[in-house]
Design goal:
Mean pLDDT of chain A: 94
Largest sheet of chain A: 4 strands, parallel
CATH architecture of the largest domain in chain B: 3-Layer(aba) Sandwich
CATH class of the domain at 43-200 in chain A: Alpha Beta
CATH superfamily of the largest domain in chain B: Thiamin diphosphate (ThDP)-binding fold, Pyr/PP domains
Radius of gyration of chain B: 20 Å
Low-confidence stretches of chain B: 1-7
Helix content of chain A: 25-40%
Order of helices and strands of chain B: HEHEHEHEHHEHEHEEEEHEEHEHEHH
Order of helices and strands of chain A: HHEHEEEHHEHEHHHH
Radius of gyration of chain A: 23 Å
Structural class of chain B: alpha/beta
CATH topology of the largest domain in chain B: Rossmann fold
Number of strands of chain A: 6
Low-confidence stretches of chain A: none
Oligomer: heterodimer
Strand order of the largest sheet of chain A: 1-2-6-5
Mean pLDDT of chain B: 94
Distance between the termini of chain A: 53 Å
CATH architecture of the domain at 43-200 in chain A: 3-Layer(aba) Sandwich
Bound molecules: thiamine diphosphate, magnesium ion
CATH topology of the domain at 43-200 in chain A: Rossmann fold
């Protein structure tokens, strides 16, 4: 969401369930959306976002081809390595390839589905691209710890999928340092393993490249001082977001509890709550 | 026939949520101004559905139909016969047997500006799509804090088709009507099928539209002109003052049959066809119960926590003091749907059981 340019304040406010949150505190950590930034969720059911992403791309193609009102577009649909085990994803890939739907499934493969290592949760785990190829989808593997490499490999794929109106599949190899959630004692992996990956950290790698001079094989476009200032700025943004969320008001049940349930509300859609407490019935 | 109650039309055509953007609502008229139900343009229920879809697809290019066998096969039940010829394969789309996949895909398409009509060959098969149709479609508007709605119609056969056994005979209204955020229509005849389906397609919320394999061949007069039946307006299928029979979908016919038999004994029942379950036109029920003081609710889904239970709760909440007898319900029997003809007949609600219920109340 941050990469889509969404204000960290409204994200933090949603995480903490405030009215100023991006979903007014009604979506929560797993259900965040932004019409403004064309960010379509946030879906709490692992794997369920894959048919949805396919549908967003279906509509984009329909607008281009049938309605002739839009340009060729492509949808990026992210999922975890755990999500690839869901049946919905297999159905989505089949539909996308069959119908020529411009959606790119990006597997953020961090090696774990919660606490279950990839070799324990999915068959043929070292050849995930087969899962795309099996459906006739162009499938590539990308080392996600090298950011420049990610750009170099993704750019042509995105262009191709948009241009040919075809789906794509990316096994994007990455890692996570923290636990899956607040309550994760991480018994399923060693500290050595985590440290090994910290030694290959993608941000540290990029920084190294940006700091090093061109003679040393880098870019030499920022200085240590600039980097320190940048870090301070990032910290300030995060602390501002935390302050904003902590001081933001909770959603008001009087106004927010029942709104946004229907786009076209009607009488008698819900049982009347008046009578649950034995109040007098105005119909009598 | 006239209705006992005319809802406030201004309430039906209230403002559309801003998440939906520009949206053209049809014009709803009072029941008395609707085109006549009498006439000689007799067409089948399935043709009425087809007319509704075709008219709306001609009007609005963002509407498309997808489902198993809807295109080249001309519809597993011939509902979409000929539509591929008229609209082409980009708008009448054959899907693989992937309910979870294509239902979810169409929800994504609805979020991105299209108005999909998703045909389930049978609502029984929607169970493998329960996650997208219950978790995504009806909750999208709420979970996004009003940023995205989901204008989509899911439709297909509901209820026992006749000796199809337990997995193929689902009445999903008992399960699905529980979920806020969706609307549900269950037409009992061709005239209503056309008018309600047109309204469903024009409605900006997810609509669950429950048809019946057993009624697809039923014929009745259906006006050629366009008309829209507002949701939440029950139809008085028969007038009477002894007992109110409340139902929706196919069992409305059982109620009418029962009422005609009871009339031979001088017992005049009023039959209300609810037409939509969400919204449920409780006002019309109350109006009728105030006259009859007795009510039987007939529901072809299971009794435990079902639509009849909900209807009876609301009746008790709204007009308990007007009742001379506790409300009575006639449901299917509380067992999985049997296969054998005789067992299935004993399982379903029917006119005999309704007559028995009415006689029990009046005894
Ligand atoms: C259908 C479903 N089952 C279980 C969960 C609980 N759950 C949430 S995240 C998760 C693990 C997901 O792993 P992965 O897809 O690899 O994503 P990651 O967190 O590693 O990015 C599980 C089991 C869920 N949200 N949805
Ligand atoms: Mg993972």
């Amino acid at each position: 969401m941050l990469a889509y340019g969404i204000d960290p304040k409204v994200i933090m406010a949603e995480l903490t369930g405030r009215e100023a949150g991006i979903s007014k505190g009604k979506g929560g950590s797993m259900h965040m959306f932004s019409t403004e930034h064309k960010f379509y969720g946030g879906h709490g059911i692992v794997g369920a976002q894959t048919p949805l992403g396919t549908g967003l791309a279906f509509a984009a193609r329909y607008k281009w081809e049938v309605l002739e009102t839009g340009p060729k577009q492509v949808c990026l649909c992210y999922l975890g390595d755990g999500a690839i085990d869901q049946g919905a994803f297999h159905e989505a890939k089949n539909l996308a390839s069959l119908m020529g739907i411009p959606v790119i499934y990006i597997i953020e493969n961090n090696g774990y589905s919660m606490g279950t290592a990839i070799h324990r949760h999915t068959a043929n785990h070292d050849k995930l691209t087969m899962r795309g190829e099996a459906y006739g989808i162009k499938s590539i593997e990308i080392d996600g710890l090298d950011i420049r490499n990610v750009y170099d490999k993704m750019k042509p794929l995105v262009d191709e999928c948009r241009d040919l109106q075809r789906p794509g599949f990316v096994d994007l190899k990455t890692y996570r340092y923290q636990g899956h959630s607040m309550s994760d004692p991480q018994k399923y992996r060693t500290k050595d393993e985590v440290d090994e990956f910290k030694g290959k950290d993608s941000i540290a790698n990029l920084l190294d490249y940006l700091l090093k001079s061109e003679d040393e094989g880098g870019r030499g476009c920022i200085t240590e001082d600039e980097w320190k200032a940048m870090q301070k700025k990032i910290k300030d943004i995060v602390m501002d977001a935390v302050d904003f969320a902590e001081n933001a008001a909770d959603p008001d049940p009087e106004t927010e509890l029942v709104t946004d349930t229907y786009a076209l509300p009607m009488k008698n859609l819900s049982p009347s709550e008046t009578y649950h407490h034995g109040a007098k019935n105005p119909l009598l | 026939m006239t209705t006992a109650y005319t809802p406030d039309l201004s309430k039906i055509t209230s403002d559309i949520h801003p998440a939906i953007g520009t949206w053209e609502l049809p014009t709803f008229v009072a029941e008395s101004e609707m085109p006549s139900r009498e006439g000689d343009r007799l067409i089948q229920y399935r043709e009425a559905l087809r007319e509704a879809m075709s008219e709306e697809m001609r009007r609005d290019k963002t509407v498309f139909l997808i489902g198993e066998e809807v295109a080249e096969y001309n519809g597993a039940y011939k509902v979409s016969q000929g539509m591929l010829d008229e609209f082409g394969p980009k708008r009448i789309i054959d899907s693989p047997i992937s309910e979870n996949g294509f239902a979810g895909m169409c929800i994504g398409a609805a979020m991105n500006g299209l108005k999909p009509i998703v045909e389930f060959m049978s609502w029984s098969f929607s169970l493998v799509a329960a996650d997208p149709i219950l978790n995504n479609a009806p909750k999208m508007l709420y979970m996004s804090g009003g940023q995205w709605g989901c204008p989509i119609v899911f439709r297909g056969n509901d209820g026992a088709g006749g000796q199809l056994g337990s997995t193929h005979s689902w009445c999903v209204e008992g399960l699905y009507a529980n979920v806020p955020g969706l609307k549900m229509a269950i037409p009992s005849n061709p005239y209503d099928a056309k008018g309600l389906l047109k309204t469903a397609i024009r409605d900006p919320d997810p609509v669950f539209f429950l048809e019946s394999e057993r009624m697809l061949g039923d014929k009745a007069h259906v006006p050629e002109e366009e008309y829209y039946i507002p949701f939440g307006r029950a139809r008085v299928a028969r007038e009477g003052d002894a007992v109110t029979l409340v139902s929706w979908g196919r069992p409305v016919h059982f109620c009418v049959d029962a009422a005609e038999r009871l009339a031979q004994d001088g017992i005049e029942c009023e039959v209300l066809d609810m037409r939509t379950i969400r919204p449920l036109d409780i006002d019309s029920i109350v109006e009728s119960v105030k006259k009859t003081n007795r009510v039987v609710v007939v529901d072809q889904s299971w009794p435990f926590g079902g639509v009849a239970s909900e209807t009876i709760s609301q009746i008790c909440e709204h007009c308990f003091d007007w009742l001379d007898h506790q409300p009575v319900r006639v449901n299917t029997r509380d067992v999985p749907t049997p296969y054998a003809k005789g067992l299935e007949a004993a399982y379903l609600p029917n006119a005999d059981r309704i007559v028995e219920a009415v006689n029990g109340i009046l005894a």
